Amino acid sequence: MADDIPQAGQKAPDFSAPDQDGHQVSLGDLSGQWIVLYFYPKDDTPGCTTEAKDFTELSQDFSKLNAKILGVSVDSEKTHCKFINKYNLSITLLSDPEHQVADAYGAWRLKKFMGKEYMGVERSTFLIAPNQTIAYTWPKVKAKGHAVAVLAQLQKLVDT
C-alpha cells in the first residue's frame, strides 16, 4: 500500500484546491518555498484540533524558515472558516471534498473503526522542498507533538 504514497526525492504531485476564503492554492504557485502539506480527517475533532493549534503555535518559526503550512481535509471552506475562527488558527486550510489532493498523496485510504471499514483521510504529512520534490514524509501521524517533529526535521534540512 505504501507504494502509492510519494516518497522522499520524488516530484511532489501537483494540486490545486480552495482555501478557507475560496482562493485557489496551487503547488505551482508556491515554488521557491518549503511547504508543510498535512492531511487530517475532520475539522474541530480532538486530534485535528490539537494538530492545527500546534502548527499555529509554531507558524512563526516555520515562516522564519520560508515554510508555508497547508492543512488539507474533505471539509468545506465554510467549515474551515468556523474551525479557524473558533481556535484562532493562523494556518491555511484547503478544502478537498472530492479527495483529489488526498488521493494524489496516498492519504485517502481504507480505514477501520469499531469493526467497520470505510474510506477516509489518514493523518499524514509531506514536507515539500522549494524545488517541489518531497523532502520527507510522515505516514500515519499521531497528532500530539507532530508539529514540533516537522519543525525539527525542517530545521535539519535547512541547515544542511
TrEMBL record:
<feature type="active site" description="Cysteine sulfenic acid (-SOH) intermediate; for peroxidase activity">
    <location>
        <position position="48"/>
    </location>
</feature>
<dbReference type="GO" id="GO:0008379">
    <property type="term" value="F:thioredoxin peroxidase activity"/>
</dbReference>
<protein>
    <recommendedName>
        <fullName>thioredoxin-dependent peroxiredoxin</fullName>
        <ecNumber>1.11.1.24</ecNumber>
    </recommendedName>
</protein>
<dbReference type="GO" id="GO:0034599">
    <property type="term" value="P:cellular response to oxidative stress"/>
</dbReference>
<dbReference type="GO" id="GO:0045454">
    <property type="term" value="P:cell redox homeostasis"/>
</dbReference>
<keyword id="KW-1015">Disulfide bond</keyword>
<comment type="similarity">
    <text>Belongs to the peroxiredoxin family. BCP/PrxQ subfamily.</text>
</comment>
<feature type="domain" description="Thioredoxin">
    <location>
        <begin position="6"/>
        <end position="156"/>
    </location>
</feature>
<dbReference type="GO" id="GO:0005737">
    <property type="term" value="C:cytoplasm"/>
</dbReference>
<dbReference type="InterPro" id="IPR013766">
    <property type="entry name" value="Thioredoxin_domain"/>
</dbReference>
<dbReference type="InterPro" id="IPR024706">
    <property type="entry name" value="Peroxiredoxin_AhpC-typ"/>
</dbReference>
<keyword id="KW-0560">Oxidoreductase</keyword>
<keyword id="KW-0049">Antioxidant</keyword>
<comment type="subunit">
    <text>Monomer.</text>
</comment>
<dbReference type="InterPro" id="IPR000866">
    <property type="entry name" value="AhpC/TSA"/>
</dbReference>
<keyword id="KW-0676">Redox-active center</keyword>
<dbReference type="Pfam" id="PF00578">
    <property type="entry name" value="AhpC-TSA"/>
</dbReference>
<feature type="region of interest" description="Disordered">
    <location>
        <begin position="1"/>
        <end position="22"/>
    </location>
</feature>
<comment type="function">
    <text>Thiol-specific peroxidase that catalyzes the reduction of hydrogen peroxide and organic hydroperoxides to water and alcohols, respectively. Plays a role in cell protection against oxidative stress by detoxifying peroxides and as sensor of hydrogen peroxide-mediated signaling events.</text>
</comment>
<dbReference type="InterPro" id="IPR036249">
    <property type="entry name" value="Thioredoxin-like_sf"/>
</dbReference>
<keyword id="KW-0575">Peroxidase</keyword>
<dbReference type="InterPro" id="IPR050924">
    <property type="entry name" value="Peroxiredoxin_BCP/PrxQ"/>
</dbReference>
